[in-house]
Write a structure and sequence with these properties.
The protein is mainly beta and 370 residues long. The chain is 14% helix and 36% strand. It has a domain at 247-332. Residues 361-370 have low confidence and may be disordered.
């Protein structure tokens, strides 16, 4: 057969094809399953899915997911924005929720975190939803029998030893519960947290990092980060940096592969943000001041320990700063139907788009496009 008539599968060795596809963003790669049976098999393979996720996490800037109601759900492609020549308007992808949505519930959808391409949503009053916007894999979970109060702490994590997604939920009045996607069931967590759970003192959404979910306290009197190990099903804590306890801790983030913490300065009308990084996990003495910005910003991504991408909480602009504090790029969003939404932490999260599906999902349905 003439080379002009050969398919790409015949021209490229399988190893080279894999090396090419692993560099394609998940949202563009997922539709390519229908190119051929070989591509369907390759892109659906769990080993390739895992390799693709780790490659994306290591070499690509994550996206910024936000959801306010059924009309305002989407994500900002930060990689295209800062490295692909896109504008802020063109870098936004809008999503349709894959589950039924009742009218008059516009303010009842909260974003509680992300894990391996999945976002965790809370649908008032007693449901949480785990959803991958790329694959549309999702699951609606009732927590009515676990927790029956409004002041609730949530978290999502991944137990690699069991290939299982774990959701943790608790309140001051109720014992912590853990939901396993693998077993499709709630169980009580018998090990008590290291400090009393006063749930209204905690930011109610957790951050998954290093095999554990982390929660930050609102109160200056609480000087620890609460941790839950999803494999061992155990609580522990990490002290905040002692140098800046007089500032207001605002948000936990992941920067440069390390746990990091935004501190806001509200004294004397100052609007500064300091970011502290825990260089060695669970080693309190390894907290270091990474940079300071003369605005109230949420750090989103650290590039090569030289530039940081942030979201300004006042102007709602995405910007890039040098670690010395110099702003080098700024993108203003002009679609005001979205701009009042994207800057609020309780309806947004940083996430890495992936091809992952839930353990309980029917793989055959996934391969056929669900």
């Amino acid at each position: 057969m003439d080379n002009n008539q050969k398919s790409i599968n015949e021209l490229l060795p399988l190893e080279l094809l894999q090396a090419i596809l692993v560099r394609v963003p998940a949202k563009h790669l997922f539709p390519l399953r229908f190119v051929s049976k070989l591509w369907l098999s390759l892109i659906s393979d769990p080993t390739f899915v895992e390799f693709h996720f780790h490659h994306t996490s290591e070499f690509t800037i994550p996206s910024y997911f936000f959801a306010h109601n059924d009309q305002l759900v989407g994500s900002v492609d930060l990689h295209a924005l800062f490295h692909g020549g896109a504008t802020l308007d063109t870098s936004i992808e809008k999503f349709s929720l894959p589950f039924p949505w009742k009218k008059n519930t516009r303010s009842n959808l909260l974003v509680l975190g992300s894990c391996r391409g999945f976002v965790l949503l809370r649908h008032y009053p007693y449901y949480i939803i785990l959803w991958n916007p790329v694959t549309q894999s999702h699951k609606k979970i009732s927590y009515y029998n676990a927790v029956k109060k409004n002041n609730i702490i949530h978290g999502i994590g991944y137990d690699a030893s069991n290939d299982d997604y774990v959701i943790v939920i608790f309140s001051k009045e109720n014992q912590p519960h853990c939901f396993s996607l693998r077993t499709n069931s709630w169980t009580k967590i018998d090990v008590a947290p290291p400090t009393p759970l006063i749930t209204y003192e905690f930011i109610p959404w957790g951050l998954f990092f290093n095999g554990a979910i982390h929660w930050l306290s609102y109160r200056p009197s609480n000087r620890d980060i609460l941790i839950f190990d999803v494999k061992k099903r155990r609580f522990s804590k990490i002290p905040l940096p002692e140098q800046k306890l007089t500032w207001w801790p605002s948000k936990l983030v992941i920067l440069g592969g390390c746990l990091a913490l935004n501190f806001f300065d509200y004294r004397d009308n100052n609007k500064r943000t300091q970011v502290w990084v825990l260089k060695k996990y669970k080693v309190p003495s390894s907290w270091i001041l990474l940079y300071e910005i003369p605005h109230h910003c949420i750090s989103l991504f650290l590039s090569n320990y030289s530039d940081v991408i942030v979201l300004d909480r006042v102007t709602m602009n995405f910007a890039k700063y040098k670690l010395e504090g110099e702003r080098v790029q700024c993108f203003k969003y002009f679609n005001y139907s979205f701009c009042h939404v994207i800057a609020f932490e309780h309806i947004s999260t940083v996430y890495t788009p992936s091809l992952a599906t839930l353990p309980s999902c029917d793989k055959k349905k996934w391969k056929n496009g669900m």
